[in-house]
Amino acid sequence: MRNQLLKFLVSLTIIIQNCLGIVLPQTLRRELKWGQVNILHTTDMHGWLAGHAHDKRYSSDLGEFVSFINHMKQLAEEKDVDLLVVDTGDLHDGTGLSDLTNPPGSWTNDLLKNVPYDVLVAGNHELYLPIVMNDTYHNFIPSWNGRYLASNVDMYDEKTDTYTPFGEKYAIFDTPHNVRILSLGFVGSFSGGCNEARVLPMEITLQHSWWNEIRELEDIDLILIAGHIPVHDSSELDQLLLKLRKEFPDTIIQVLGGHSHIRDYAVYDEKAAGLQSGRYCETVGWASIQGLPSFTSSKARSNSFYPVFPFFSPLIDYSKKVLETTLYFTNPSVFSRSYIDWNRKGFIYHSNVHDFNFDTIEGSKLSHQIANARKRLNLLDPLGCSPIDYGFSEVPRNASNSIYHLFETEIFPKTIINKSRKHLPHYIIINTGGIRGGLQQGSFGLDELFQVSPFKGNIFYVLKDVPWFIVKNLPYWLEHSGYLSIYDEPSTFLDTPNTFEKDLVYTKSKPKSEQVSYGYQTHDDMGDDGDDTIHLPIPHYDSGNYLCSKVNVDLDLDRHPRQVDLVTTEFVIPRLNYILNKLVGKSLFTKEDWNLYFWRKDGRHSMTDLLALYAEKYWDKECLYST
Ligand SMILES: *[C@@H]1O[C@H](CO)[C@@H](O)[C@H](O)[C@H]1NC(C)=O
Ligand SMILES: *[C@@H]1O[C@H](CO)[C@@H](O)[C@H](O)[C@H]1NC(C)=O
Ligand SMILES: *[C@@H]1O[C@H](CO)[C@@H](O)[C@H](O)[C@H]1NC(C)=O
User: Where is the Putative 5'-nucleotidase C-terminal domain (predicted)?
Assistant: First the structure.
């Protein structure tokens, strides 16, 4: 009976999806604006190099991206301008392809070496595990010939008992068109990195001796800041910009940011702007820059085709907060930006070639390598069949089709079980950042497992018998102490309001324009025309800071338990201790008070394993219908 109902629901979903497919018309695209220096930007790829198999909007793999770069380089040559390619960190933690290898990210790093990046910077995910950091240091960074930047990151070296620079502090290079670039690379400072990682806050970084070296530089035409840091509301970035403006009052500054997984563009002043290019290989960012006086056409062609704009702008009063200077922005011809959807059709559109000419030798080779790697990691083997789509930020957290709701109400209580304590009242508490994506209806395998939750090192511990007077206030403080979120990714990823009409995505009424599909609709400092593909917005709901499954707990206040077991992951323990100690007003709880709670002989007891364990028991292994 249950199965039949499921099948009915499933086929209904398929029908609805098919209808959507018919209703959704062809895409409408905006042209890119080319400048003198142009940049293709990736960030927060988190291992999605094989593309999004279930989502046509982001379906290209890294090989197709490389073909795209090849064609864009060709175009740049024809237009007689410069094209750079930049990445701003967090290369892995997010798919089976990146995280099933040992060390995690080692295969994807090898694949990424085929992308002709001009500048790269580390992200926080390069710095969580000593083996990842070491592998990146020895086997990835040397491939970039001094263009892997880590201005504020050092790595502890056991042999010499000292810290060595993780990447270059800065790089200076000339483009083919005579633009001298000073490039810096920062990771927004965070705690929670491994002991080997030292990430200096901006204040301290700017006091280092190498900063004095760059202050002396006189012939810099463009400052390129590659930052694993959001382009808006980052006090560290503000500090850096203020400081740079003091030394380089008139130099154009282009920031490329990341970390918070959104599309965004910030205008700091007439000659400084920042681009942030989303997440998970959904977005290729495009930044173009005009008005570089040193730019020389290599064919000695007149500059009139790409005019150089003179600047009469008064210098900005930098005692004011940098971010307030948006108002001063008067000359939009200096910068332009686009957010390119990561798919073949879009790549072809912008690179102006025919489909059959699109794949380059380098690109096809890389696509093959990715496909082989996926096979070798058994990513194609089915683990289970998801009965419906479980949404991520696009559905309310408490909706029955929310991935968070699935974990909170089903997966945690039904998989994280300790025989000796399962009958006792307990809370299973996980930070929402532990869940990274939704699950599509249909067959899924190891890749999807990691896409939902990549934290395979995260195992579960218990703090036994915590008195009720502490526990009762815990949910409030988990949400409001701010502590669960600060070491984590921000929980608001898109800047659309939470209150978006949720039926927008599923509506069958015709969109206003005949040619609009659902996807990103970005509002940034430059306006609403940044997305290369015109979309209707997908709603976004705040996920909050944590999930809590309350097991065997009667919430009737008169019948509350006297004490409650708290179960959580290694990652959350220090944060939970902090909050608990705040609640009792002294340092009562330490790491040593937590005991192992969930351990399996087969080793499948981490956050990543839960979905598979659950699917094995409660879902069909193979999908009985075709999608
Ligand atoms: C770091 O990586 C290098 C090169 O892969 C390896 O030889 C060395 O043993 C690693 N060190 C640690 C501490 O893992
Ligand atoms: C979900 O949460 C919101 C806000 O707390 C609430 O208004 C709504 O009724 C809840 N919906 C469900 C299905 O529980
Ligand atoms: C159950 O919890 C107890 C207490 O923490 C622990 O000693 C034991 O190893 C756990 N059992 C399993 C199978 O994880």
Answer: 389-575
How many other CB atoms sit within 10 Å of the CB of residue 321? 10
Task: Look up residue 260 and give its DSSP letter.
Answer: S
Positive/negative CA dihedral, 360, 362, 367, 368: positive
CB-based pocket (< 6 A), ligand 2: 396, 398-399
DSSP state of 410: I
Place of tokens 């990447």: 167
Distances (CA, A) of 381 to 374, 446, 447, 469: 10, 8, 10, 48
Task: Name the pairing type of β-strands 252-257 and 272-277.
Answer: parallel
Residue 624 has phi, psi (to 5 degrees) of -90, 5
Strands 153-157 and 197-199 turn out to be antiparallel
Nearest to 458 by CA among 284, 295, 575: 575
Beta bridge partners of 564: 466
Sign of the dihedral through C-alpha 415, 421, 424, 428 = negative
- Three-class SS of residue 549? strand
| Nearest Cα residue to atom 14 of ligand 1 | 131
3-state SS of 463-518 is EEEEEHHHHCCHHHHHHHCCHHHHCCCCCCCCCCCCCCCHHHCCCCCCCCCCCCEE
Whose alpha carbon is nearest atom 8 of ligand 2?
398
| DSSP 8-state assignment for residue 31 | P
User: What is the whole-number distance in angstroms between the Cα of residue 30 and the centre of ligand 1?
Assistant: 47
- How much distance in Å is there from the Cα of 604 to the middle of ligand 3? 15
CA 66 to chain centroid: 20
**Index of the ligand 1 atom closest to the CA of residue 131:** 14
Backbone phi and psi for residue 135, each to the nearest 5 degrees, phi listed first:
-65, -45
Region class of 544: left (phi > 0), else alpha (psi between -120 and 50), else beta: left
Residues lower than pLDDT 70 in the chain: 1-27, 298-333, 482-516, 557, 625-627
Query: Residue 525: which H helix or E strand, with range?
Result: none
**pTM score, two decimals?**
0.82
Angstrom distance (rounded) from CA 92 to CA 186: 18
Q: Write out the E strands in 88-179.
A: 119-121, 148-149, 153-157, 162-165, 170-174
Question: Model confidence over 531-583: pLDDT tens digits?
Answer: 999 888 888 888 888 999 999 998 776 788 999 999 999 889 988 998 999 88
Protein residue with least CA distance to atom 11, ligand 2? 398
Ligand 1 atom showing the smallest separation from residue 135 Cα:
2
Nearest partner of 605 among 594, 595, 596, judged by Cα: 596
